[in-house]
Amino acid sequence: MTATDVRDWDPGDGRLPTPSTTRSPAWSADVTPRATAALPPLAPDRDPAAPDWSEVVEHFREGLVVCDADGVVRHVSPVAERLLPEVEPGELLSAAGVPGLSDGDAGGFTHHGRRLTARQVPLSGARCCWYVEDVTDSVSRADALLAERARSAFLAVVGDKLGNPLHPDRAAAAVVRLAVPTLAEVAVLVLAPRGGRARWWRASRSDDEAPTVDSGVLAGGDLPTAIADGLTGVEPHAVDWLVEQAVDAGWLPGLAGTESAARVVPLPGRDAPVGVLLVARRSTRWYDEADVELARAFAARAGAALTTALLYRDQAEVADTLQASLLPVEPAEAAGVQWGTAYRPAQAGLRIGGDFYGSHRLADGGSVFFLGDVSGKGVEAAVFTGQLRQCLQALHRLESHPGRLLRLLNDALLETTQAHGQGRFATMVLGVARPQRDGGLTLTMAGGGHMPPLVLRNSGEVESVPLSGMLIGVVPDPRVGEVTVRLAPGETCLLYSDGVTEARGGRRGDEQFGTERLVAAVTGCQRMPAPALAERVEQVTCDWLAHGDHDDIAVLALRATGPGGRGSRHLHSVPAQAGADRQRETDA
Protein backbone atom coordinates (compact mmCIF):
# COMPACT_ATOMS: atom_id res chain seq x y z
CA MET A 1 0.00 0.00 0.00
CA THR A 2 1.52 3.26 -1.08
CA ALA A 3 1.16 6.75 0.24
CA THR A 4 -1.24 7.38 -2.63
CA ASP A 5 -3.56 4.67 -1.26
CA VAL A 6 -3.57 6.30 2.19
CA ARG A 7 -4.50 9.62 0.73
CA ASP A 8 -7.40 8.02 -1.10
CA TRP A 9 -8.89 6.79 2.24
CA ASP A 10 -10.23 9.18 4.83
CA PRO A 11 -10.32 7.37 8.16
CA GLY A 12 -12.92 9.84 9.42
CA ASP A 13 -15.58 8.54 7.03
CA GLY A 14 -15.30 4.99 8.33
CA ARG A 15 -14.27 3.47 4.97
CA LEU A 16 -11.46 1.07 4.33
CA PRO A 17 -8.76 2.03 1.86
CA THR A 18 -9.29 0.88 -1.72
CA PRO A 19 -6.23 -1.18 -2.65
CA SER A 20 -5.60 -2.26 -6.24
CA THR A 21 -4.96 -5.86 -7.21
CA THR A 22 -1.46 -5.03 -8.32
CA ARG A 23 -0.61 -3.45 -4.95
CA SER A 24 -2.39 -5.88 -2.69
CA PRO A 25 -2.65 -9.47 -3.87
CA ALA A 26 -4.33 -10.49 -0.62
CA TRP A 27 -7.40 -8.34 -1.43
CA SER A 28 -7.68 -9.59 -5.04
CA ALA A 29 -7.11 -13.29 -4.51
CA ASP A 30 -10.11 -15.52 -5.09
CA VAL A 31 -9.60 -17.32 -1.80
CA THR A 32 -7.77 -15.76 1.08
CA PRO A 33 -6.80 -18.00 4.00
CA ARG A 34 -8.79 -16.89 7.07
CA ALA A 35 -5.70 -16.84 9.24
CA THR A 36 -3.97 -14.45 6.83
CA ALA A 37 -7.00 -12.38 5.94
CA ALA A 38 -5.48 -9.19 7.28
CA LEU A 39 -4.37 -6.26 5.26
CA PRO A 40 -1.04 -6.74 3.39
CA PRO A 41 2.15 -5.76 5.16
CA LEU A 42 3.96 -2.65 4.25
CA ALA A 43 6.04 -2.87 1.08
CA PRO A 44 9.81 -2.63 1.59
CA ASP A 45 9.88 0.65 -0.29
CA ARG A 46 7.07 2.13 1.80
CA ASP A 47 7.62 5.09 4.07
CA PRO A 48 8.30 3.64 7.54
CA ALA A 49 6.30 6.50 9.08
CA ALA A 50 3.10 5.41 7.30
CA PRO A 51 0.54 3.61 9.61
CA ASP A 52 0.06 -0.15 9.44
CA TRP A 53 -3.65 -0.28 8.50
CA SER A 54 -3.96 -3.94 9.45
CA GLU A 55 -3.15 -3.05 13.06
CA VAL A 56 -5.62 -0.16 12.96
CA VAL A 57 -8.46 -2.35 11.66
CA GLU A 58 -7.81 -5.01 14.28
CA HIS A 59 -8.52 -2.48 17.03
CA PHE A 60 -11.79 -1.21 15.58
CA ARG A 61 -14.76 -1.63 17.89
CA GLU A 62 -16.78 -2.62 14.86
CA GLY A 63 -16.18 -5.75 12.83
CA LEU A 64 -15.43 -5.24 9.13
CA VAL A 65 -16.58 -7.47 6.28
CA VAL A 66 -15.43 -6.41 2.81
CA CYS A 67 -17.22 -7.79 -0.24
CA ASP A 68 -16.44 -7.44 -3.94
CA ALA A 69 -18.87 -6.38 -6.62
CA ASP A 70 -20.31 -9.92 -6.79
CA GLY A 71 -20.98 -10.08 -3.07
CA VAL A 72 -18.08 -12.41 -2.37
CA VAL A 73 -16.42 -11.89 0.99
CA ARG A 74 -12.85 -10.69 0.53
CA HIS A 75 -11.88 -9.69 4.05
CA VAL A 76 -13.14 -10.42 7.60
CA SER A 77 -11.63 -8.53 10.53
CA PRO A 78 -10.92 -10.32 13.84
CA VAL A 79 -13.92 -8.64 15.52
CA ALA A 80 -16.17 -9.72 12.64
CA GLU A 81 -14.81 -13.27 12.90
CA ARG A 82 -15.92 -13.41 16.53
CA LEU A 83 -19.37 -11.90 15.88
CA LEU A 84 -20.08 -13.64 12.57
CA PRO A 85 -18.39 -17.06 12.54
CA GLU A 86 -20.52 -18.14 9.55
CA VAL A 87 -18.96 -15.55 7.25
CA GLU A 88 -16.05 -17.08 5.29
CA PRO A 89 -13.69 -15.26 2.91
CA GLY A 90 -14.21 -16.38 -0.66
CA GLU A 91 -17.86 -17.25 -0.04
CA LEU A 92 -20.93 -15.26 -0.92
CA LEU A 93 -22.05 -13.13 2.01
CA SER A 94 -25.68 -14.04 1.37
CA ALA A 95 -24.81 -17.74 1.73
CA ALA A 96 -23.79 -17.19 5.34
CA GLY A 97 -27.44 -16.68 6.31
CA VAL A 98 -26.78 -13.85 8.72
CA PRO A 99 -30.00 -11.83 9.31
CA GLY A 100 -29.46 -8.20 8.54
CA LEU A 101 -26.62 -9.00 6.08
CA SER A 102 -27.99 -11.68 3.81
CA ASP A 103 -31.00 -9.59 2.81
CA GLY A 104 -28.88 -6.51 2.23
CA ASP A 105 -30.82 -4.38 4.72
CA ALA A 106 -28.83 -2.57 7.36
CA GLY A 107 -30.14 -2.25 10.92
CA GLY A 108 -30.29 -4.14 14.20
CA PHE A 109 -30.73 -7.89 14.59
CA THR A 110 -30.16 -10.66 17.08
CA HIS A 111 -27.51 -13.26 16.30
CA HIS A 112 -26.26 -16.05 18.55
CA GLY A 113 -27.96 -14.40 21.51
CA ARG A 114 -26.24 -11.07 20.92
CA ARG A 115 -27.75 -7.84 19.71
CA LEU A 116 -25.89 -6.54 16.66
CA THR A 117 -26.16 -3.53 14.38
CA ALA A 118 -24.90 -3.44 10.79
CA ARG A 119 -24.34 -0.63 8.32
CA GLN A 120 -23.17 -0.85 4.77
CA VAL A 121 -20.63 1.57 3.25
CA PRO A 122 -20.00 1.56 -0.53
CA LEU A 123 -16.40 1.39 -1.81
CA SER A 124 -14.90 2.02 -5.19
CA GLY A 125 -15.34 -0.53 -7.93
CA ALA A 126 -18.85 -1.48 -6.75
CA ARG A 127 -17.39 -3.06 -3.66
CA CYS A 128 -18.83 -2.57 -0.18
CA CYS A 129 -17.88 -2.84 3.44
CA TRP A 130 -20.15 -3.98 6.28
CA TYR A 131 -19.56 -2.49 9.71
CA VAL A 132 -20.97 -4.80 12.40
CA GLU A 133 -21.11 -3.75 16.06
CA ASP A 134 -22.10 -5.67 19.21
CA VAL A 135 -24.56 -3.44 21.11
CA THR A 136 -25.84 -6.10 23.50
CA ASP A 137 -24.56 -4.37 26.63
CA SER A 138 -25.73 -0.90 25.66
CA VAL A 139 -29.15 -2.21 24.61
CA SER A 140 -29.44 -4.15 27.86
CA ARG A 141 -28.58 -1.05 29.84
CA ALA A 142 -31.08 1.00 27.87
CA ASP A 143 -33.77 -1.66 28.30
CA ALA A 144 -33.05 -1.84 32.02
CA LEU A 145 -33.27 1.94 32.28
CA LEU A 146 -36.56 2.02 30.39
CA ALA A 147 -37.94 -0.81 32.54
CA GLU A 148 -36.91 0.99 35.71
CA ARG A 149 -38.50 4.20 34.48
CA ALA A 150 -41.68 2.30 33.66
CA ARG A 151 -41.70 0.69 37.11
CA SER A 152 -41.08 4.04 38.79
CA ALA A 153 -43.84 5.68 36.77
CA PHE A 154 -46.23 2.83 37.62
CA LEU A 155 -45.45 3.04 41.35
CA ALA A 156 -45.80 6.84 41.24
CA VAL A 157 -49.28 6.46 39.75
CA VAL A 158 -50.09 3.83 42.38
CA GLY A 159 -48.98 6.16 45.18
CA ASP A 160 -51.06 8.99 43.76
CA LYS A 161 -54.19 6.88 43.23
CA LEU A 162 -53.98 5.21 46.62
CA GLY A 163 -53.28 8.41 48.50
CA ASN A 164 -56.91 9.54 48.48
CA PRO A 165 -59.30 6.70 49.36
CA LEU A 166 -59.99 6.60 53.12
CA HIS A 167 -62.76 4.03 52.84
CA PRO A 168 -61.47 0.42 52.94
CA ASP A 169 -63.83 -0.78 50.20
CA ARG A 170 -62.81 1.98 47.79
CA ALA A 171 -59.13 1.50 48.62
CA ALA A 172 -59.34 -2.27 48.03
CA ALA A 173 -61.15 -1.80 44.71
CA ALA A 174 -58.49 0.72 43.65
CA VAL A 175 -55.69 -1.72 44.52
CA VAL A 176 -56.93 -4.56 42.30
CA ARG A 177 -57.87 -2.15 39.51
CA LEU A 178 -54.34 -0.69 39.47
CA ALA A 179 -52.73 -4.14 39.42
CA VAL A 180 -54.34 -4.95 36.06
CA PRO A 181 -52.79 -5.18 33.48
CA THR A 182 -49.30 -4.12 34.64
CA LEU A 183 -48.92 -6.93 37.17
CA ALA A 184 -51.58 -9.40 36.14
CA GLU A 185 -54.55 -10.26 34.00
CA VAL A 186 -56.46 -11.18 37.16
CA ALA A 187 -55.74 -9.63 40.58
CA VAL A 188 -57.43 -10.71 43.82
CA LEU A 189 -57.11 -8.85 47.12
CA VAL A 190 -58.15 -10.62 50.32
CA LEU A 191 -58.33 -8.60 53.53
CA ALA A 192 -57.50 -10.14 56.88
CA PRO A 193 -60.64 -11.76 58.37
CA ARG A 194 -62.77 -9.62 60.64
CA GLY A 195 -65.39 -11.29 62.78
CA GLY A 196 -64.55 -14.65 61.22
CA ARG A 197 -65.22 -13.44 57.65
CA ALA A 198 -62.79 -12.26 54.98
CA ARG A 199 -63.75 -9.87 52.22
CA TRP A 200 -62.13 -10.13 48.79
CA TRP A 201 -62.00 -7.96 45.67
CA ARG A 202 -61.08 -9.10 42.16
CA ALA A 203 -60.19 -7.21 38.99
CA SER A 204 -60.02 -9.02 35.64
CA ARG A 205 -59.44 -7.82 32.12
CA SER A 206 -60.20 -9.28 28.74
CA ASP A 207 -58.59 -7.92 25.57
CA ASP A 208 -58.09 -4.16 25.81
CA GLU A 209 -61.17 -3.40 27.86
CA ALA A 210 -61.05 -1.63 31.21
CA PRO A 211 -60.73 -3.96 34.23
CA THR A 212 -63.99 -5.07 35.84
CA VAL A 213 -64.09 -5.28 39.64
CA ASP A 214 -66.27 -7.54 41.78
CA SER A 215 -66.12 -8.62 45.41
CA GLY A 216 -67.34 -11.25 47.82
CA VAL A 217 -67.04 -12.68 51.31
CA LEU A 218 -65.56 -15.95 52.53
CA ALA A 219 -65.53 -17.53 55.95
CA GLY A 220 -62.08 -17.43 57.48
CA GLY A 221 -61.87 -21.23 57.46
CA ASP A 222 -62.70 -21.43 53.73
CA LEU A 223 -59.73 -19.39 52.54
CA PRO A 224 -57.28 -21.22 50.23
CA THR A 225 -54.18 -22.45 52.04
CA ALA A 226 -51.89 -20.10 50.12
CA ILE A 227 -54.02 -17.11 51.09
CA ALA A 228 -54.11 -18.18 54.74
CA ASP A 229 -50.32 -18.56 54.69
CA GLY A 230 -49.94 -15.14 53.09
CA LEU A 231 -52.01 -13.56 55.86
CA THR A 232 -49.39 -14.81 58.33
CA GLY A 233 -46.66 -13.01 56.39
CA VAL A 234 -45.38 -16.04 54.45
CA GLU A 235 -44.95 -15.67 50.69
CA PRO A 236 -45.79 -19.02 49.04
CA HIS A 237 -43.35 -20.19 46.39
CA ALA A 238 -45.01 -23.41 45.21
CA VAL A 239 -46.73 -21.66 42.34
CA ASP A 240 -48.08 -24.82 40.72
CA TRP A 241 -50.57 -25.67 43.46
CA LEU A 242 -51.18 -21.95 44.05
CA VAL A 243 -52.87 -21.68 40.65
CA GLU A 244 -54.98 -24.75 41.37
CA GLN A 245 -56.22 -23.25 44.64
CA ALA A 246 -57.11 -19.96 42.94
CA VAL A 247 -58.99 -21.83 40.20
CA ASP A 248 -60.86 -23.90 42.78
CA ALA A 249 -61.87 -20.70 44.59
CA GLY A 250 -63.31 -19.38 41.31
CA TRP A 251 -60.96 -16.40 41.26
CA LEU A 252 -59.37 -16.90 37.81
CA PRO A 253 -62.03 -16.40 35.14
CA GLY A 254 -60.71 -17.15 31.68
CA LEU A 255 -57.46 -18.67 32.95
CA ALA A 256 -56.86 -22.42 33.11
CA GLY A 257 -54.58 -23.87 35.74
CA THR A 258 -52.18 -25.37 33.20
CA GLU A 259 -51.90 -22.10 31.29
CA SER A 260 -51.42 -19.68 34.15
CA ALA A 261 -48.69 -18.33 36.38
CA ALA A 262 -49.53 -16.82 39.77
CA ARG A 263 -47.90 -15.31 42.83
CA VAL A 264 -49.14 -14.32 46.29
CA VAL A 265 -47.66 -11.28 48.00
CA PRO A 266 -48.58 -10.19 51.58
CA LEU A 267 -49.65 -6.57 52.08
CA PRO A 268 -47.73 -5.16 55.07
CA GLY A 269 -49.79 -3.74 57.93
CA ARG A 270 -49.03 -2.35 61.37
CA ASP A 271 -48.46 -5.59 63.28
CA ALA A 272 -49.49 -8.23 60.75
CA PRO A 273 -50.35 -8.26 57.03
CA VAL A 274 -53.49 -6.27 56.35
CA GLY A 275 -54.23 -8.64 53.47
CA VAL A 276 -52.71 -10.55 50.57
CA LEU A 277 -52.58 -9.89 46.84
CA LEU A 278 -52.90 -12.73 44.33
CA VAL A 279 -51.72 -11.88 40.81
CA ALA A 280 -52.14 -14.27 37.88
CA ARG A 281 -51.60 -14.19 34.14
CA ARG A 282 -50.97 -16.58 31.26
CA SER A 283 -47.79 -18.60 31.53
CA THR A 284 -46.42 -16.93 28.40
CA ARG A 285 -45.57 -14.06 30.77
CA TRP A 286 -43.86 -15.89 33.61
CA TYR A 287 -43.12 -13.99 36.81
CA ASP A 288 -39.38 -13.40 36.92
CA GLU A 289 -37.54 -11.86 39.85
CA ALA A 290 -38.04 -8.32 38.52
CA ASP A 291 -41.81 -8.91 38.27
CA VAL A 292 -41.94 -10.28 41.80
CA GLU A 293 -39.98 -7.30 43.17
CA LEU A 294 -42.39 -4.94 41.41
CA ALA A 295 -45.33 -6.82 42.92
CA ARG A 296 -43.76 -6.50 46.37
CA ALA A 297 -43.20 -2.78 45.94
CA PHE A 298 -46.82 -2.43 44.78
CA ALA A 299 -47.99 -4.49 47.76
CA ALA A 300 -46.07 -2.24 50.16
CA ARG A 301 -47.87 0.84 48.88
CA ALA A 302 -51.22 -0.94 48.79
CA GLY A 303 -50.69 -2.17 52.35
CA ALA A 304 -49.94 1.36 53.57
CA ALA A 305 -53.06 2.72 51.88
CA LEU A 306 -55.30 -0.04 53.24
CA THR A 307 -53.83 0.27 56.73
CA THR A 308 -54.61 3.99 56.69
CA ALA A 309 -58.14 3.37 55.39
CA LEU A 310 -58.83 0.69 58.02
CA LEU A 311 -57.42 2.88 60.78
CA TYR A 312 -59.64 5.75 59.61
CA ARG A 313 -62.64 3.39 59.58
CA ASP A 314 -61.92 2.21 63.11
CA GLN A 315 -61.51 5.76 64.35
CA ALA A 316 -64.70 6.82 62.58
CA GLU A 317 -66.60 3.96 64.20
CA VAL A 318 -65.30 4.96 67.62
CA ALA A 319 -66.17 8.61 66.94
CA ASP A 320 -69.67 7.68 65.76
CA THR A 321 -70.22 5.56 68.86
CA LEU A 322 -69.03 8.32 71.15
CA GLN A 323 -71.05 10.96 69.33
CA ALA A 324 -74.16 8.81 69.53
CA SER A 325 -73.66 8.47 73.29
CA LEU A 326 -73.25 12.24 73.66
CA LEU A 327 -76.22 13.31 71.53
CA PRO A 328 -79.22 14.68 73.42
CA VAL A 329 -81.66 11.92 74.30
CA GLU A 330 -85.29 12.44 73.42
CA PRO A 331 -87.50 12.85 76.51
CA ALA A 332 -89.20 9.73 77.81
CA GLU A 333 -92.92 9.48 77.14
CA ALA A 334 -95.06 10.52 80.11
CA ALA A 335 -98.78 10.63 80.79
CA GLY A 336 -100.35 14.02 80.12
CA VAL A 337 -97.17 15.50 78.52
CA GLN A 338 -96.37 16.09 74.87
CA TRP A 339 -92.65 16.77 74.27
CA GLY A 340 -91.10 18.78 71.48
CA THR A 341 -87.37 19.16 70.89
CA ALA A 342 -84.98 20.84 68.46
CA TYR A 343 -81.20 20.72 68.45
CA ARG A 344 -78.55 22.27 66.22
CA PRO A 345 -74.89 22.14 67.33
CA ALA A 346 -72.51 24.98 66.56
CA GLN A 347 -70.22 22.59 64.67
CA ALA A 348 -72.56 20.66 62.40
CA GLY A 349 -69.83 18.24 61.33
CA LEU A 350 -69.50 16.95 64.89
CA ARG A 351 -73.25 16.59 65.52
CA ILE A 352 -72.59 17.22 69.21
CA GLY A 353 -72.21 20.33 71.34
CA GLY A 354 -72.60 21.84 74.77
CA ASP A 355 -76.41 22.12 74.92
CA PHE A 356 -78.47 19.30 76.36
CA TYR A 357 -82.01 18.37 77.34
CA GLY A 358 -83.94 15.31 78.42
CA SER A 359 -86.32 13.81 80.94
CA HIS A 360 -86.66 10.87 83.34
CA ARG A 361 -89.88 9.28 84.60
CA LEU A 362 -90.56 9.25 88.32
CA ALA A 363 -92.15 6.44 90.26
CA ASP A 364 -95.16 8.62 91.23
CA GLY A 365 -96.10 9.27 87.57
CA GLY A 366 -94.32 12.59 87.24
CA SER A 367 -91.31 13.43 85.07
CA VAL A 368 -88.03 15.19 85.73
CA PHE A 369 -87.17 17.40 82.77
CA PHE A 370 -84.18 19.64 82.12
CA LEU A 371 -82.47 21.86 79.55
CA GLY A 372 -79.05 23.39 79.97
CA ASP A 373 -75.92 24.77 78.39
CA VAL A 374 -72.32 24.07 79.43
CA SER A 375 -69.44 26.44 78.85
CA GLY A 376 -67.51 25.96 75.63
CA LYS A 377 -68.27 24.28 72.32
CA GLY A 378 -67.40 21.16 70.41
CA VAL A 379 -66.09 17.86 71.73
CA GLU A 380 -64.93 19.03 75.16
CA ALA A 381 -68.29 20.66 75.87
CA ALA A 382 -70.10 17.54 74.64
CA VAL A 383 -68.04 15.34 76.98
CA PHE A 384 -68.95 17.60 79.90
CA THR A 385 -72.64 17.39 79.00
CA GLY A 386 -72.32 13.60 78.98
CA GLN A 387 -70.91 13.68 82.51
CA LEU A 388 -73.70 16.01 83.62
CA ARG A 389 -76.42 13.81 82.12
CA GLN A 390 -74.97 10.72 83.79
CA CYS A 391 -74.99 12.52 87.13
CA LEU A 392 -78.63 13.51 86.63
CA GLN A 393 -79.60 9.97 85.67
CA ALA A 394 -78.17 8.66 88.93
CA LEU A 395 -79.20 11.51 91.26
CA HIS A 396 -82.86 11.76 90.25
CA ARG A 397 -83.39 8.33 91.83
CA LEU A 398 -82.25 9.77 95.15
CA GLU A 399 -83.91 13.18 95.04
CA SER A 400 -86.89 14.39 93.00
CA HIS A 401 -87.32 17.89 94.45
CA PRO A 402 -85.96 20.25 91.76
CA GLY A 403 -84.08 22.64 94.06
CA ARG A 404 -82.40 19.95 96.12
CA LEU A 405 -81.65 17.87 93.02
CA LEU A 406 -79.97 20.86 91.39
CA ARG A 407 -77.79 21.41 94.45
CA LEU A 408 -76.75 17.75 94.48
CA LEU A 409 -75.87 18.09 90.81
CA ASN A 410 -73.81 21.19 91.61
CA ASP A 411 -71.78 19.26 94.21
CA ALA A 412 -71.17 16.37 91.81
CA LEU A 413 -70.01 18.69 89.03
CA LEU A 414 -67.71 20.57 91.40
CA GLU A 415 -66.07 17.30 92.37
CA THR A 416 -65.69 16.26 88.75
CA THR A 417 -64.31 19.56 87.46
CA GLN A 418 -61.86 19.91 90.36
CA ALA A 419 -60.61 16.35 89.87
CA HIS A 420 -59.93 16.94 86.17
CA GLY A 421 -58.95 20.59 86.41
CA GLN A 422 -61.51 21.53 83.78
CA GLY A 423 -63.00 24.63 85.38
CA ARG A 424 -66.25 24.21 83.46
CA PHE A 425 -69.74 25.28 84.50
CA ALA A 426 -73.30 25.07 83.24
CA THR A 427 -76.55 26.96 83.18
CA MET A 428 -79.70 24.96 83.63
CA VAL A 429 -83.44 24.77 84.18
CA LEU A 430 -84.54 21.62 85.99
CA GLY A 431 -88.15 20.84 86.77
CA VAL A 432 -90.68 18.19 87.72
CA ALA A 433 -93.95 17.88 85.75
CA ARG A 434 -96.90 16.21 87.41
CA PRO A 435 -100.19 15.62 85.58
CA GLN A 436 -103.44 16.88 87.10
CA ARG A 437 -106.91 15.34 86.98
CA ASP A 438 -108.24 17.98 84.62
CA GLY A 439 -105.51 17.22 82.09
CA GLY A 440 -103.30 20.10 83.07
CA LEU A 441 -99.74 20.02 84.40
CA THR A 442 -98.04 21.39 87.49
CA LEU A 443 -94.46 22.38 86.78
CA THR A 444 -92.06 22.93 89.69
CA MET A 445 -88.84 24.38 88.26
CA ALA A 446 -85.44 25.30 89.67
CA GLY A 447 -83.09 27.69 87.89
CA GLY A 448 -79.31 27.68 87.73
CA GLY A 449 -78.33 30.86 85.86
CA HIS A 450 -80.37 30.02 82.77
CA MET A 451 -82.79 32.11 80.67
CA PRO A 452 -86.33 32.09 82.11
CA PRO A 453 -88.82 29.76 80.37
CA LEU A 454 -91.81 31.04 78.40
CA VAL A 455 -95.40 29.88 78.84
CA LEU A 456 -97.88 30.01 75.96
CA ARG A 457 -101.37 30.49 77.41
CA ASN A 458 -104.57 29.44 75.68
CA SER A 459 -105.48 33.11 75.42
CA GLY A 460 -102.51 33.69 73.10
CA GLU A 461 -100.53 35.51 75.76
CA VAL A 462 -96.86 34.60 76.22
CA GLU A 463 -95.59 34.81 79.80
CA SER A 464 -92.00 34.84 80.99
CA VAL A 465 -91.48 32.67 84.08
CA PRO A 466 -89.61 34.66 86.78
CA LEU A 467 -86.88 32.07 87.45
CA SER A 468 -83.38 33.02 88.57
CA GLY A 469 -80.40 31.34 90.20
CA MET A 470 -76.61 30.93 90.11
CA LEU A 471 -74.40 28.99 87.70
CA ILE A 472 -73.98 25.28 88.35
CA GLY A 473 -70.51 23.89 89.06
CA VAL A 474 -68.88 27.14 90.19
CA VAL A 475 -69.33 27.49 93.97
CA PRO A 476 -70.59 25.20 96.75
CA ASP A 477 -74.16 25.72 97.93
CA PRO A 478 -75.24 28.11 95.15
CA ARG A 479 -78.41 30.15 95.31
CA VAL A 480 -81.07 28.29 93.34
CA GLY A 481 -84.35 29.91 92.35
CA GLU A 482 -87.59 27.92 92.40
CA VAL A 483 -91.02 28.56 90.94
CA THR A 484 -94.21 26.59 90.33
CA VAL A 485 -96.27 27.08 87.17
CA ARG A 486 -99.71 25.69 86.35
CA LEU A 487 -100.43 24.67 82.73
CA ALA A 488 -104.03 24.28 81.68
CA PRO A 489 -104.81 21.64 79.04
CA GLY A 490 -103.39 22.81 75.69
CA GLU A 491 -100.90 25.25 77.22
CA THR A 492 -97.14 24.92 76.60
CA CYS A 493 -93.94 25.72 78.50
CA LEU A 494 -90.94 26.53 76.31
CA LEU A 495 -87.30 26.13 77.41
CA TYR A 496 -84.44 27.29 75.19
CA SER A 497 -80.69 27.89 75.27
CA ASP A 498 -78.82 31.16 74.71
CA GLY A 499 -78.07 29.98 71.18
CA VAL A 500 -81.58 31.23 70.35
CA THR A 501 -81.63 34.66 72.00
CA GLU A 502 -77.97 35.45 71.31
CA ALA A 503 -78.06 34.43 67.66
CA ARG A 504 -76.51 37.26 65.63
CA GLY A 505 -77.93 38.19 62.25
CA GLY A 506 -80.39 40.64 60.79
CA ARG A 507 -79.57 43.21 58.15
CA ARG A 508 -76.15 44.07 59.54
CA GLY A 509 -75.37 40.54 60.64
CA ASP A 510 -74.38 41.51 64.21
CA GLU A 511 -77.74 42.12 65.88
CA GLN A 512 -78.91 39.62 68.50
CA PHE A 513 -82.20 37.83 68.00
CA GLY A 514 -83.21 38.62 71.58
CA THR A 515 -86.07 37.61 73.83
CA GLU A 516 -88.52 40.10 72.30
CA ARG A 517 -88.24 38.58 68.84
CA LEU A 518 -88.58 35.12 70.33
CA VAL A 519 -91.79 36.14 72.12
CA ALA A 520 -93.11 37.64 68.89
CA ALA A 521 -92.22 34.45 66.98
CA VAL A 522 -94.25 32.21 69.32
CA THR A 523 -97.14 34.59 69.89
CA GLY A 524 -100.25 33.07 68.36
CA CYS A 525 -98.73 29.59 68.33
CA GLN A 526 -100.53 28.39 71.47
CA ARG A 527 -102.47 25.75 69.52
CA MET A 528 -99.34 24.27 67.95
CA PRO A 529 -98.23 20.81 69.03
CA ALA A 530 -95.03 20.84 71.04
CA PRO A 531 -92.85 19.31 68.26
CA ALA A 532 -94.03 21.91 65.74
CA LEU A 533 -93.42 24.74 68.22
CA ALA A 534 -89.85 23.60 68.91
CA GLU A 535 -89.20 23.29 65.19
CA ARG A 536 -90.57 26.79 64.59
CA VAL A 537 -88.25 28.32 67.18
CA GLU A 538 -85.26 26.62 65.56
CA GLN A 539 -86.36 27.71 62.09
CA VAL A 540 -86.88 31.40 62.88
CA THR A 541 -83.51 31.42 64.69
CA CYS A 542 -81.72 29.93 61.68
CA ASP A 543 -83.49 32.36 59.35
CA TRP A 544 -82.21 35.20 61.51
CA LEU A 545 -78.67 33.80 61.34
CA ALA A 546 -78.77 33.55 57.53
CA HIS A 547 -76.17 30.73 57.54
CA GLY A 548 -73.83 32.67 59.81
CA ASP A 549 -71.85 31.27 62.72
CA HIS A 550 -73.83 30.51 65.83
CA ASP A 551 -73.72 28.90 69.24
CA ASP A 552 -75.37 25.58 70.06
CA ILE A 553 -79.17 25.80 69.78
CA ALA A 554 -81.47 23.67 71.94
CA VAL A 555 -85.22 23.90 72.45
CA LEU A 556 -87.49 21.84 74.75
CA ALA A 557 -91.27 22.32 74.73
CA LEU A 558 -93.72 20.47 76.97
CA ARG A 559 -97.46 20.77 76.40
CA ALA A 560 -100.32 19.72 78.64
CA THR A 561 -102.26 17.33 76.42
CA GLY A 562 -105.50 17.41 78.42
CA PRO A 563 -107.78 14.46 79.30
CA GLY A 564 -106.82 11.31 77.41
CA GLY A 565 -103.13 12.21 77.32
CA ARG A 566 -102.84 12.65 73.55
CA GLY A 567 -102.07 15.78 71.67
CA SER A 568 -104.15 17.23 68.87
CA ARG A 569 -103.71 15.74 65.42
CA HIS A 570 -104.12 19.16 63.80
CA LEU A 571 -101.36 21.52 62.75
CA HIS A 572 -102.10 25.20 62.57
CA SER A 573 -100.69 27.83 60.31
CA VAL A 574 -98.36 30.26 62.04
CA PRO A 575 -99.27 33.96 61.86
CA ALA A 576 -96.71 36.55 60.84
CA GLN A 577 -94.54 37.87 63.66
CA ALA A 578 -96.16 41.27 63.30
CA GLY A 579 -99.55 39.68 63.96
CA ALA A 580 -102.47 38.61 61.82
CA ASP A 581 -106.18 39.20 61.85
CA ARG A 582 -107.03 35.55 62.03
CA GLN A 583 -105.56 32.05 62.10
CA ARG A 584 -106.42 29.36 59.61
CA GLU A 585 -106.64 25.79 60.78
CA THR A 586 -105.91 22.93 58.40
CA ASP A 587 -105.82 19.19 58.85
CA ALA A 588 -102.33 17.68 58.98
Automatic annotation (TrEMBL):
- This chain belongs to which protein, by name? Serine/threonine-protein phosphatase
- Matches recorded under InterPro entries: Bact_Sigma-Reg, GAF-like_dom_sf, PPM-type-like_dom_sf, PPM-type_phosphatase-like_dom
Provide the residue span(s) of the region labelled Disordered: 1-49, 564-588
Q: What taxonomic lineage is listed for the species of origin?
A: Bacteria, Bacillati, Actinomycetota, Actinomycetes, Micromonosporales
Instruction: Return any one Pfam family short name.
Output: SpoIIE
Name the keywords, alphabetized.
Hydrolase
Query: From what organism does this protein derive?
Result: Micromonospora zamorensis
Which residue ranges does the record assign to the PPM-type phosphatase domain?
337-560
Q: Where is the composition biased (Basic and acidic residues)?
A: 1-13
Which SMART domains does the record match to this protein? PP2C_SIG
